[in-house]
């Protein structure tokens, strides 16, 4: 199995777990946050797909649009108001499927290429960006799980006890 195949399998497994956790969010609690200044459940959900799209575009296309908005404006400014868990899940699925298709089509021999943008002090290889999508999603999936537990007392994890 090469690095691309490993990434695609890992991406699929992580996505499955994330969808299980997102299903535990009470839809009427999207605006809930544990404290002022922290992301709400809905904002975290939106951030997952927006960042995946932006990181993928930087990695595969050398497009920095996400960073060009995110860095100067800040995260809260680019997220906007989240109104529906269902619509965010649709966007997560779209970004996820776009990632699978575009990564599958991206030649394995190009995974070592570097992407650099001095404005953001970023210099990374394509594969580092791509695996960063997975790491980032797991981080926020755990955050959502903790929020849901605080909010409901219930367990929100893709892992069996």
What features would you highlight for this structure?
mainly alpha, single chain, 161 residues, 6 helices, globular, two-stranded antiparallel ribbon, Four Helix Bundle (Hemerythrin (Met), subunit A)
Count of runs of 4 or more consecutive helical residues: 6
Shape, per Cα inertia axes:
globular
Mean pLDDT: 97
User: Beta fraction of the residues?
Assistant: under 5%
Can you list the strand order of the major beta sheet?
Answer: 1-2
**pLDDT below 50 for ≥5 consecutive residues: which ranges?**
none
Description:
The model has no long low-confidence stretch (mean pLDDT 97). The protein has helices spanning 3-22, 41-61, 65-73, 75-79, 85-105, 126-152; strands at residues 114-117, 122-125. It has a two-stranded antiparallel ribbon with strand order 1-2. The protein has a single domain, classed as Four Helix Bundle (Hemerythrin (Met), subunit A), CATH 1.20.120. It is mainly alpha-helical and 161 residues long. It contains six helices and two strands; from the N terminus they run H-H-H-H-H-E-E-H. Helix content is 64%, strand content 5%.
């Amino acid at each position: 199995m090469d690095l691309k195949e490993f990434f695609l399998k890992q991406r699929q497994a992580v996505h499955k777990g994330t969808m299980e956790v997102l299903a535990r969010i009470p839809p009427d609690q999207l605006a809930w946050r544990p404290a002022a200044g922290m992301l709400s459940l809905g904002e975290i959900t939106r951030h997952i797909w927006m960042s995946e799209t932006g990181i993928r575009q930087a990695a595969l296309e050398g497009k920095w649009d996400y960073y060009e908005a995110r860095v100067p404006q800040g995260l809260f400014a680019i997220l906007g108001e989240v109104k529906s868990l269902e619509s965010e899940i649709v966007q997560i699925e779209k970004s996820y499927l776009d990632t699978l298709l575009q990564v599958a089509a991206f030649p394995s021999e190009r995974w070592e290429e570097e992407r650099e943008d001095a404005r953001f002090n970023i210099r990374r290889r394509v594969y580092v960006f791509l695996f960063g999508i997975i790491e980032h999603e797991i981080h926020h999936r755990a955050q959502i799980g903790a929020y849901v537990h605080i909010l409901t007392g219930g367990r929100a994890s893709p892992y069996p006890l």
